[in-house]
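Chapter review: from sequence to fold.
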Amino acid sequence: MSDDDNSPISAREARRLFAGLKAAPALVLAVSGGPDSVALMWLVARWRRSLVRGPQLTVVTVDHGLRPEAAREAREVKRLATELGLPHRTLRWRGAKPKTGLPAAAREARYRLLAQAARAVGASHVLTAHTRDDQAETLLMRILRGSGLAGLSAMASVSERDGIVLARPLLDVPKAQLIATLKRAKVGFADDPTNRDTAFTRPRLRALLPQLAAEGGDARTLV
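The token string follows.
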């Protein structure tokens, strides 16, 4: 990637990021409406338009039913997907929600629904928008939980779940660069307040990352 974390991602950089996906028959893009996933959608759509032939794209938004704003955000994702010429589906996590372990349960439900969507459209891959910042947070969480050496490897760029390949093509990209890309393209995105809810572990660690960087311990350099 560019040495400047605040520079937009160029078409050339995007071609490198998505080069391994060109032969896939179809791809599902997991898009919540936040900056990372909206940038993923915009970048993949631009990349696909540059190809003579390539994978079919489907955008999927999972509404976990946890926030009243989620339905509006899903509609906004659909609007942008339509502008980009991409089909969109909203899937809902139905049923009772657990009182404890909610983030993990929501994550399991999300991946299950995304895998179902992929099978429905004949997609071999689900693309998520995890960034280098997410990787750093995951690594810190695993260190704090006493993970062994295997745990310290954090997230893989490619894994498999329920017979579907999960690809994280932005795992080496800083979040700031995705936001710069959207600003340059004048593309809006949603702000999910749960990402700052310190009742949960990941947002608390996220808030600590700038302080660690100020002390010379930028966790993003560890991944």
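Two observations follow directly from the output. The CA atoms of residues 115 and 161 lie 8 Å apart. The helical segments are 11-18, 35-49, 69-83, 102-121, 132-144, 175-185, 201-214.
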